[in-house]
Amino acid sequence: MKKIICALCGIFMTGSVYAVPAVVDYIFDGDTFSAQVFLEPTVKITVRVRLINIDTPEIKGACRREKDLAQRAKSRLMELIPRGTVVELGNIKDDKYLGRINANVFLPDGRDVGLILIDGGYGRPYGGGKRKSWCDK
Question: How many structural domains does the chain have?
Fold first, then answer.
């Protein structure tokens, strides 16, 4: 058990800059998914990963427009990283919600998933603080 705790501290310490491989498990919305991270060949954990520096509309949004945009963003993320895809998690940081981390997510070819979503109009850059409404046109 001590070995697992030490490994977790090393991987998920705030500001981790090295890439950690993870296998995509489930997409929650346009900027959050769960993934399995292998700490050792036979030891894995499942964590929720929120894409860092991006905001996508919420599935339970405040208006019909936001909900529709949220479904589009979720579908696009599902296309980019379907279940079973091996991604690299980089720049890992703690999240405000227990059991979730923030990270840059890289495809096997090295592209940043968050930037792909922003460039495609599925999300917008986010640096923290109050988010702008998706209901305004």
Answer: 1
